[in-house]
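lol so apparently i was supposed to do this last week
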Amino acid sequence: MMKKIVVLVSGGGTNLQALINAQQAGELGNGKITCVISSKADAYALTRAAEAGIKTRTLIRKDYSDIASYSIAMRDALTQEGADLVVYAGFMTILDENVCDAFKNKMINVHPALIPSFCGKGFYGLYVHQAALEKGVKVSGATVHFVTAECDAGPIILQKAVEVMEGDTPELLQKRIMEQAEWKILPQAVKLFCDDKITVKDGKTIIK
Ligand code: GAR
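anyway here it is w/ glycinamide ribonucleotide bound
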């Protein structure tokens, strides 16, 4: 059975691009990206989706007064799209239980650090890498996990470590983590999900 994948974006969309590339290479298993939804009107990710012939929608965060009303609108959009899997690919809004309960164990996020390090509210984009460099860790990486109402706390699906190098800036570390980890493990996790290879038990995942 084909699984409909809806990808949520807010920015440049390099993780979306990795998913599009994987799909074009036949590497998403039973999954197909059927819609991309952006929280920002000017996200370059929307151009990437359009160029790949994928339907786009915008659901602008600023148009909603609070996270509850935005979450309800997002839940309705995802239901309309018939999403079997929702992928946060650089999606910078924390949605509440209105979405997380409706799509329990059907939403995954890529986070640019090894959870539980450098995660939670305020840790997004370059701030994550800035914090890792300030701490002086020698290894960072990326994590793909299921989304729950608690930010970055859901069951972990895949992780990949990446070395921190002398002279790294947040930008350099971000680029290395994207290239060596995020763009690999996000499509891998999507394929595992679409091929029904992931189960969740006691807050942990088991990969078949
Ligand atoms: C990526 O590094 C992603 O892991 C991170 O933002 C970047 C988005 O890049 N996401 C978060 O920090 C979410 N908490 P992209 O738009 O090029 O995929």
